[in-house]
Amino acid sequence: AQSVTQLDSHVSVSEGTPVLLRCNYSSSYSPSLFWYVQHPNKGLQLLLKYTSAATLVKGINGFEAEFKKSETSFHLTKPSAHMSDAAEYFCVVSDNAGNMLTFGGGTRLMVKP
Amino acid sequence: KAGVTQTPRYLIKTRGQQVTLSCSPISGHRSVSWYQQTPGQGLQFLFEYFSETQRNKGNFPGRFSGRQFSNSRSEMNVSTLELGDSALYLCASSLVWDASIGELFFGEGSRLTVL
């Protein structure tokens, strides 16, 4: 069985400072890992995904994530937060063929001016 | 091009009623999957269809059902509604049937309130 744990339910940063959203996963197989973002009253948008290629994955809007198998982690980072980054972020795992995704509980990112 | 369209966007039902939600995928996409989002349980997978066949099903009671039509549009139905069914129901479409290869595009959801 696969599972995802997002270590922080809320993260608050100041505009222009780095962002770190933490994610640990559990999977029986070689997983595919994703980060999705959800803005208020909007659907989910894919930020980036890891599928066993390069361990450092670059996504949209300056976000990137590093897959660390030894730590079973897939943390999301951004060097400099922008007000428009305020949203809920979901770490997601898929370890079977298909479009069945297992979501973490989400991290709400707040960006202070 | 048009994104994933879900209808209705908002609806209110009472306990015991049934509801049908509709999802129109992006043109050309053959995979449609459904997710339930609640404050308590988060995002949970309901089911997935590809070319009219159900490929995966999540851990939900039989009151939750779905189908996909030949034009890839999908519907999900919830019968005998319970208060706990109040949620945002999200639909996602993909060109392919494997998330590691393709990308899931989500609609804005149908918000169901059960009174």
Give me the Rg of chain A, rounded.
13 Å
Whole-number average pLDDT of chain B?
A: 93
Name the chain pair with the biggest interface and residue counts per chain.
Answer: A-B, 24 and 28 residues
Number of strands of chain B: 11
Stretches of chain B where pLDDT is under 50 for at least 5 consecutive residues are none
Commentary on this structure:
The complex is a heterodimer of chains A (113) and B (115). With 113 residues, chain A is an all-beta fold. Chain A is 0% helix and 53% strand. Chain A has strands at residues 3-6, 10-14, 19-21, 23-26, 32-38, 44-50, 56-58, 64-68, 73-78, 87-94, 102-103, 107-112. The termini of chain A are far apart. The model of chain A has no long low-confidence stretch (mean pLDDT 92). Chain B has 115 residues and is mainly β. Chain B is 0% helix and 52% strand. Chain B is globular and about 40 Å long. The model of chain B has no long low-confidence stretch (mean pLDDT 93).
Task: Provide tags for this entry.
heterodimer; A: 113 residues; mainly beta; six-stranded mixed sheet; B: 115 residues; seven-stranded mixed sheet; four-stranded antiparallel sheet; 0% helix; globular
Brief digest:
The complex is a heterodimer of chains A (113) and B (115). By secondary structure, chain A is an all-beta fold.
Question: Which secondary structure elements does this structure contain, and how are they paired or packed?
Answer:
The complex is a heterodimer of chains A (113) and B (115).
Chain A: E1 3-6, E2 10-14, E3 19-21, E4 23-26, E5 32-38, E6 44-50, E7 56-58, E8 64-68, E9 73-78, E10 87-94, E11 102-103, E12 107-112
Parallel strand pairs in A: 2-12
Antiparallel strand pairs in A: 1-4, 3-9, 5-6, 5-10, 7-8, 8-9, 10-11, 10-12
Chain B: E1 5-7, E2 10-13, E3 19-24, E4 31-38, E5 42-50, E6 53-57, E7 64-68, E8 74-78, E9 87-94, E10 105-106, E11 110-114
Parallel strand pairs in B: 2-11
Antiparallel strand pairs in B: 1-3, 3-8, 4-5, 4-9, 5-6, 7-8, 9-10, 9-11
